[in-house]
Amino acid sequence: MAAIFGFGGGPWVVPGNYTVKLTANGQTYSQPLTVKMDPRVKVSQADLEKQLDMAQQILAKSAETNAAAQQAAALQKRLQEIAPQIASRKDKKLADTVDELDKRVSTLLGKPPAGELGGTPEPTDRTTLRYVSGALGQVERVVESDDAAPSADASAAFAQDDQIAQAALQKWEAIVSTDLPALNKELHRAKIEPIELGMQRPGPAEN
Asked: Rounded to whole angstroms, how far apart are CA atoms 66 and 82?
């Protein structure tokens, strides 16, 4: 079988020559590494490259949806924290704005998975960030479960999940770029600290 970089930290790599780098205390150390095919495995290099390519696409989309879900959860928590403060001021307009945004964020985020940590939430709504994040994780595990090119079913599942993820991410981007700034203007008017999410999008993976 192909070797994996790290323990649960990335996709299986194809046989070939690599350089491993370690940076610690401002110093970078590198060492050549050769990954060889397990002689018991009978699969072409081309099929392994197809597997790696899809695994990397899935993981990149998962990183986006996971980041958005974490930020949405943080925004949901903050909205619920300031709601009583606003209610005490009897500012109905601002209270309604916060309540409406809270509902939109909660709908987009979806319910947390029941039971096993990191599992897929119940499919009551397959358009939520949490659902698609879990679904992408399941597809990634299927793709990586064997040394072979991705199956037609796995490819179709990823295409579907990718489409759902893209739609959810567009909705989240609209909240971040339009709705949250508008709310922050109202919070500033009411002399309430604006909501800062500390937006950080995942960068491209290094080869």
From this structure: 25
Give how many domains the chain has, as a whole number: 1
Q: Which region holds residue 167: left if phi is over 0, alpha if psi is between -120 and 50, else beta? A: alpha
Residue 35, C-beta contacts closer than 8 angstroms, at least 6 positions apart: 2, 3, 13, 14, 15, 16, 17, 18
In a domain, 110, yes or no: yes
Residue 102 lies inside a defined structural domain of this protein: yes
**140 contacts 62 by C-beta, under 8 angstroms:** yes
Inside any domain, residue 206: no
Task: Indicate whether 86 belongs to any domain.
Answer: yes
Structure tokens at 173: 């981007």
Q: How far from the centroid of its chain's Cα atoms is residue 87's Cα?
A: 34
Distance of CA 199 to CAs 33, 72, 120, 175, 195, Å?
36, 11, 25, 13, 11
CA distance to 10, 77, 93, 98, 163, per residue, from 119 (Å): 18, 21, 38, 30, 20
Where does the pLDDT of residue 41 fall: very low under 50, low under 70, confident under 90, or very high at 90 and above? confident
- DSSP-derived secondary structure letter, 178: I
Please compute the mean of the pLDDT values over residues 34-42 and round it to a whole number: 88
Query: Which is more confidently placed, 112 or 59?
Result: 59
Provide the 3-class DSSP secondary structure of residue 116. Answer: coil
- pLDDT of 3 above 50: no
Residue 108: both structure tokens together: 């987009």
